[in-house]
Amino acid sequence: MADVVVERGRVARATGARKGSSLRNALGRKSTVAFFLTLPLILLILLLVLYPALYSVHLATLNKAMTKFVGLSNFTFLFKRETFWMVVRQSCIFAITAVVFKALIGFIVAHFVHNIPAKGQRKWRGMLLVPWVIPPAMSTLAWLWLFDPSYSAFNYTLSFFGVGPIPWLGDTFWARFSVILVNVWYGAPFFMIMYLAALKSVPDQLYEAAEIDGANWWQKIWHITLPMMRNIIAITTLFSLIVTFANFDIVRILTSGGPLDTTHLFATWAFQVGIQSSDIPLGACVSLFMVPILAVAAIFILRDVNKRGNEA
Amino acid sequence: MADVALRKVVKRYDDVEAVRGIDLDIADHEFIVLVGPSGCGKSTTLRMIAGLEDISDGDIMIDGDVVNDVPPKDRDIAMVFQNYALYPHMTVAENMSFGLRLKHYPKAEIKARVTEAARLLDITDLIDRKPKQLSGGQRQRVAMGRAIVRNPKVFLFDEPLSNLDAKLRVQMRIEIKKVHQKVRTTTVYVTHDQVEAMTLADRVVVMNKGRIEQIGTPNELYHKPATRFVAGFIGSPAMNFLPCRLEDVGGTLQIRLTDRIAFALPPARAARYNALPRTDKLLLGLRPEHLTESHAHLEPGVESFDTVLDVTEPMGMETLVYFGLDGTPVCGRVNPNAGAKDGAPMRLAMDLNNMHLLNEATGVVL
Amino acid sequence: MSTLAIDKAGPSRKVKYGSMSRDRTWALRWSYFFLVLFAIFFLTPPVYMLITSLKSSAEISAATNPWWVFHPTLSNYVELLSSNQFLRFFWNSSIISIIVVIVTMMISIPAAFALARMKFWGSATLATGVFLTYLIPDSLLFIPLFKVLGGVQELTGITLLNRWYVLVFIYPTLTVPFCTWIMIGYFASIPKELDEAALIDGASWLQTLTRIFIPVALPGLIAATIFAFTVSWAQFLYPLVFTTSVDQLVLPVGITTTLIKGDVFNWGQIMTGALLGAAPPLVIYAFLMDYYIAGLTAGATKG
Q: In terms of pTM, does the model score above 0.90?
């Protein structure tokens, strides 16, 4: 107790001397501390994200040997290539179709899981999320094996119904179908889990009130579930659009872009052009074409995230 | 233990002044309650004393030393928060000893202090529990225990009881008072509940719109409010304010409430108000307990009048009656056996010996 | 049904009640029916992995019923787990993922604390920047990063390309933004009074972080750790671009490039490798499912 008293006296005296400047020091300390705490993050973003992103713009304006500035001629070269337009079309078809089906299946499955008694929900949820947990490169190998031209387990099964054999990866239509199927398989569980979280956050009283007002199950979904989940649906969809649009693993492993480049996405084509054919500027150029659609999606996500922040 | 002084303390947020120049002297051992409606600046004032908010202007002194620029940990204060702010991952004992452990007190002393505080607050059995295993009242005790073990110069309480239910609140109020009687540490206590303020405080500081309206003992505030705000804020049900004016009738000073109702003032009151201009718009301030049922032998200064009741509220030991006087709603307190009924006429008596007269424009009690 | 309800209020209530519970039973049956269908769809590939991994090459090429194992054998597992090359992949993946988790936490936690609690100049912009960085996909950056790393290598003389440790520098660009973002959310949900209490108790900023924030936000920390680990473990594009020598490869790239030799597909081994490669995330998921899911949903529901 006595030492405390002594300490108090010292603090008090020190206080008198410090008056006026120490608050500024404290403020200075606080923002200095904050600066050092965020410095690694800032450096990481600047050096390994922002700089490479800007550098790729520079790269896209060089010739193949990267010795001279060629302006926009890489871009004009791409515009004249039919493959490029096929990649643009396929990327859009791939991303939009896959996201729509992921969203639909995710929503339906989430509803069914939400419908069953709470006791069993955990088990089903755990089982249905497995595709999302397996590294896509690994699970796509299993799909590749399921689609195998001579040993396809699907074709084996379908043959009993007199269907097939289906050239899963050999034919343009079926190859495009297959890459979308695998992407939907991989991504739908993510939607399911997001929707399930959103469904849980809708208060039960709303459904009870709607029931008393005479709403049927469809009206309940349309007038209560969907409006209450709108924000989560929007964010999840936009986020998935970005990830799907930029997908690499699935197409690379399943088809490597084939047959005849018809399943290439921006990412896989940029890899083929830039890394495998060593035309880095052209590859950079190809991947830069992802930027506009990513930017639009990012702006909408940011708007929704901020809006939710304000509501909270 | 220490005294606390505030000198012209101002808090500005951008261009809003939350606290507009407060002067306050808190004596050693004193229990001071800051009370007022939400947004009156009472919490901000407390947080400035704690050092959690910077002071825009003025000085705060603890034990005679200006602490404006002293960080909270060096002010030697302890604070109890509204939501208790117990560290959820620590046991009760760890919560209470956290501050001492940070200051590297010897283990034996920490244990002694925690044990003593736990005994004082009757939470010895809970010492190894985590906060989420405790009830609201128990959490409140632990929060107080955390303050007590530090043995600080000043206790600061920020609405500590408002998360408790009504019954527990009364119980904990008594508990806080008991603890203060034992440890006698200077205490600043913030609440919006005037009953809490009245029951706990040595002196109450009523705040409104960033200023101090009045400082005084609970009885002073109740019987001698300085302003209309204090008069209306302290006491429940609240004081009635009836528009009125003074008039001279045949040498006696009369107070006129409505066209029909006017009473002669008791001599002491008449002498006090005689100098007032007769044209001033005034308010008669009268607490409900001074509006009771009339009976045959009225004391001097008590005047009776007839009215028709709107609503009655039987409370058990009394009945509250509500009626209108020239459109002004009025509340009175009558004996439950006085026969007050909804919509029925009743003769009531007004005790003018306990009246207050206020200037309607300035709100000052005259 | 509805006319009945209007006509005879008394009995109709009973009928309605009965039909509602009957509706409910049917809804439940349909729910289970569709859940089973979707579970089959979702679980077919991993189950098929397991089935194939238990078959010998002879059985696979015999083209018997692919959904059944007639002569189960662990020879694929034995072969892979005694192959130095495969163990090397596993080791590379493990060491990289563990280092990346540590680096990610060391960057994310302090930054998230500063962004959640210390308002400083540019903090709002930085928080938005972190979120935007999270939205930048790997497929946009692998080409410039390849060149940048090559440039650094030339400049400093330190070999970066074709070395496993280069991935330790690159992966945090994928893990740090999301981990920071969800940690900001978790930290922000800690009541302000808790740090004020710590401040009054005499804790410094750093003590507040280590002794209050980190223990209180431990569930968030676990979720972020799981995220960082699984992302590092599953990453395919960067190691495919930046590493080529067999001894520098990580599992996903190693399995797809070395087990597929030309046109000779040893599917038994490929499926075994894929299953072993999927095992660590699956095991983590099995034991820490709630944290895993909390981390997944935190990105959209917190922050």
A: no
